[in-house]
């Protein structure tokens, strides 16, 4: 009798836990709520034009966050702090390679993807073969990349986006929607296919959930983990190209802001930093949420100090909403 | 054969018992290289300068060690440093250039650091948020408050304060008194029950909880200690730069983590060396000065520094792993 009662209570508790937390739903509700608040505060905030502009900004963050998402899913405290460095570096290199001509776009894409992938592979090798914690390896890599930026830039602002690239990012491509948003949707589709329809996807979840078990089941753990970091480098490189197209020319350390923003987008999207569960759909919502939030704070007529306080406070509030870890009292 | 294996065992036991040994070895090699590249770099004057510039990072690295020991991390301590810096400078300017005023300013700075640390501890351990993102968010918050206290950099510090920091007492540069106090503090703290509790929480949180330790309280205490030591770092920065800057500490957060790792502390918690972290901070300082002294062209300096720090990190972690095996 008593036993049965306890059992019912447990299952009830589990059911409540399961229902109350769906990060994607929470994020979407918050986005809609924030848009309404924004519209009330400053009419025109939620106009189609404005929403498209927000989505352009969000898609750049979202593409960086795709790589971050993969690395985090792979577990073992996976995190990539070097994404910001790769974004800045690829923006500069792409600008120098294309230097304002459409013919240079393809070589530029190839160049930055190869460089980004190579940096990612280095990160992956450091993490797997040298055994460095990802936080440390990618932190060290960030230091190297920041130095490399100074060398590549040589102190002079250089590089120019090709007209076609700028057009792709800022003006309508199809149905009035800019190319970069289509690109982001494509990334989202590819990520969903990769994670849920391929062997590699299952392996990513496997090593994230339990690396030892995955190894015993025959998963080439090191190769998978290196590929995650490689993808992260490539996604950041693509995002760097997009920033170049968005701003016209590359300027100093444009990627810095993406380092922690990409991690927060992933967390707000419901992928815990412990890895092994979650997905990219939530991360996309997380990226939009973050951008809408920042945009509202910019719209409000408050000084930098107030903006930062409000941003930090809201982030904490959002995390309390659904980013919480498990309590020790099981 | 036997002798060799005993030898390597000894070496491993030493390094296992004193995790800072590899860092110390790297530091000594770097100092020697500095001496070869530029004999002047080992003069009393230059070493003073090194200590004066990197004392803040040493305190910050020690601060970070407390939370890392508990398997947490604090990405906000650069922001705490900035906030304490602007608070101290503002209070000093309000009260005027008197010794009493300076003491009050310093105490209020430490109080601010303590409060920030406790907020971090509450957010991470009390609300069960993930340390990396939660302390990033509180860092944004603290930066906002620092900008509110002092919107633009440049408020000067009373001369009594920076003259004391850069000057000498009884013929010995003041900086060495601070170093001695830091050393004493590390020695005493490493002997407390608290540090053992922090380490056991870091080693196995569930186990510590089941043993009856108050895990939440211990993690909050670690964050509070981290905040207090960050405020000490801020006092050093204030003495070194002699001005208030609401963004002075932001770049130092990641260096503090690098210093902790260089010092042989495991980011996974449960194994830490406060002394190692201080040595790690000095290692970063000597790397930077070595890059300068070997005559690296200015635009290449950052790259060489970054690569050298990465190599040192790889070496440090590699040696610790060998020791554990």
Quick recap of the structure?
The complex is a heterodimer of chains A (330) and B (325). Chain A has 330 residues and is mainly α.
Secondary-structure element order of chain A, as H and E?
A: HHHHHHHEEHHHHHHH
Name the strands of the widest sheet of chain A in spatial order: 1-2
- Residue fraction in strands of chain B: under 5%
Q: List the total number of helices of chain B.
A: 14
Largest protein interface?
A: A-B, 53 and 50 residues
Largest sheet of chain A: 2 strands, antiparallel
Radius of gyration of chain A: 21 Å
- How many H/I helices of chain A? 14
Shape of chain B: globular
Mean pLDDT, all residues of chain A? 81
**Proportion of helical residues of chain B:** over 70%
Quaternary structure annotation: heterodimer
- The string of secondary-structure elements of chain B, in order, is HHHHHHEHEEHHHHEHHH
> Largest beta sheet of chain B, briefly?
2 strands, antiparallel
Structural class of chain B: mainly alpha
Mean residue pLDDT of chain B: 83
Unreliable segments of chain B (pLDDT under 50, ≥5 consecutive)? 1-6
The separation of the N and C termini of chain A measures: 23 Å
Tell me what the structure shows.
The complex is a heterodimer of chains A (330) and B (325). Chain A is mainly α and 330 residues long. Chain A contains 14 helices and two strands. A two-stranded antiparallel ribbon of chain A has the order 1-2. In chain A, helix 12 crosses helix 13. With 325 residues, chain B is an all-alpha fold. Helix content of chain B is 78%, strand content 2%. The two termini of chain B are 20 Å apart. At the A-B interface, helix 6, helix 12 and helix 14 of A face helix 6, helix 10, helix 12 and helix 14 of B.
């Amino acid at each position: 009798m008593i036993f049965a009662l306890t059992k019912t209570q447990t299952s009830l508790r589990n059911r409540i836990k399961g229902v109350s937390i769906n990060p994607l739903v929470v994020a979407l509700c918050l986005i809609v709520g924030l848009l309404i608040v924004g519209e009330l505060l400053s009419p025109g905030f939620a106009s189609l034009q404005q929403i498209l502009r927000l989505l352009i900004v969000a898609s750049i963050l979202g593409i960086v966050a795709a790589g971050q998402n993969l690395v985090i899913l792979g577990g073992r405290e996976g995190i990539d702090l070097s994404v910001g460095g790769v974004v800045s570096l690829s923006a500069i290199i792409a600008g120098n390679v294309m230097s304002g001509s459409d013919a240079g776009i393809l070589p530029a894409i190839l160049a930055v993807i190869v460089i980004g992938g190579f940096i990612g592979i280095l990160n992956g090798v450091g993490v797997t073969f040298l055994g460095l914690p990802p936080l440390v390896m990618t932190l060290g890599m960030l230091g190297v990349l920041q130095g490399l930026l100074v060398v590549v830039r040589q102190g002079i602002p250089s590089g120019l986006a090709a007209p076609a690239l700028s057009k792709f990012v800022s003006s309508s491509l199809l149905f009035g929607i800019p190319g970069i948003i289509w690109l982001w949707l494509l990334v989202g589709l590819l990520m969903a296919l990769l994670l849920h329809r391929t062997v590699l996807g299952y392996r990513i979840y496997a090593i994230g959930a339990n690396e030892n078990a995955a190894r015993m089941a025959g998963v080439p753990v090191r190769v998978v983990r290196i590929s995650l970091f490689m993808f992260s480098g490539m996604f950041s490189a693509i995002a760097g190209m997009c920033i170049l197209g968005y701003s016209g020319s590359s300027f100093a350390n444009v990627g810095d802001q993406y380092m922690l923003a990409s991690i927060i987008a992933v967390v707000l999207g419901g992928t815990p930093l412990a890895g092994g569960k979650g997905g990219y759909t939530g991360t996309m919502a997380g990226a939009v949420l973050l951008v809408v939030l920042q945009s509202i704070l910019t719209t409000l007529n408050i000084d930098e100090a107030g903006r930062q306080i409000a941003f930090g406070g809201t982030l904490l509030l959002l995390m309390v909403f659904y980013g919480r870890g498990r309590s020790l009292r099981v | 054969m036997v002798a060799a294996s005993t030898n390597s065992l000894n070496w491993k036991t030493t390094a296992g018992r004193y995790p800072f040994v590899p860092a110390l070895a790297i530091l000594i090699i770097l100092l020697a290289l500095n001496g070869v590249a530029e004999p002047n770099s080992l003069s009393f004057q230059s070493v003073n300068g090194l200590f004066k510039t990197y004392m803040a990072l040493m305190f910050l690295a020690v601060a970070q060690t407390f939370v890392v020991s508990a398997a947490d991390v604090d990405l906000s301590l650069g922001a705490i440093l900035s906030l304490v810096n602007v608070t101290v400078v503002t209070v000093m300017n309000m009260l005027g250039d008197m010794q009493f005023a300076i003491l009050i300013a310093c105490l209020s700075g430490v109080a601010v650091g303590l409060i920030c640390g406790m907020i971090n501890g509450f957010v991470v351990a009390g609300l069960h948020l993930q340390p990396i993102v939660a302390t990033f968010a509180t860092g944004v918050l603290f930066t906002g408050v620092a900008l509110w206290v002092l919107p633009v950099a440049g408020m000067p510090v009373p001369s009594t304060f920076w003259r004391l920091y850069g000057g000498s007492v009884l013929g010995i540069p003041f900086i060495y008194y601070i170093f001695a106090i830091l050393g004493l503090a590390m020695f005493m703290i490493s002997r407390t029950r608290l540090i053992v509790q922090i380490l056991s929480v870091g080693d196995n949180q569930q186990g510590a909880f089941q043993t009856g330790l108050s895990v939440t309280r211990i993690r909050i205490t670690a964050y509070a200690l981290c905040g207090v030591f960050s405020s000490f770092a801020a006092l050093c920065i204030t003495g070194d730069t002699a001005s208030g800057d609401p963004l002075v500490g932001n770049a130092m957060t990641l260096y503090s983590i690098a210093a902790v790792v260089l010092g042989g502390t495991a980011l996974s918690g449960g194994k830490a060396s406060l002394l190692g972290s201080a040595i790690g901070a000095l290692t970063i300082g000597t790397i930077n000065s070595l890059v300068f002294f070997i005559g690296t062209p200015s635009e290449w300096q950052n790259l060489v520094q970054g690569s050298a720090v990465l190599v040192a990190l790889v070496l440090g972690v590699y040696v610790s792993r060998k020791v554990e095996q």
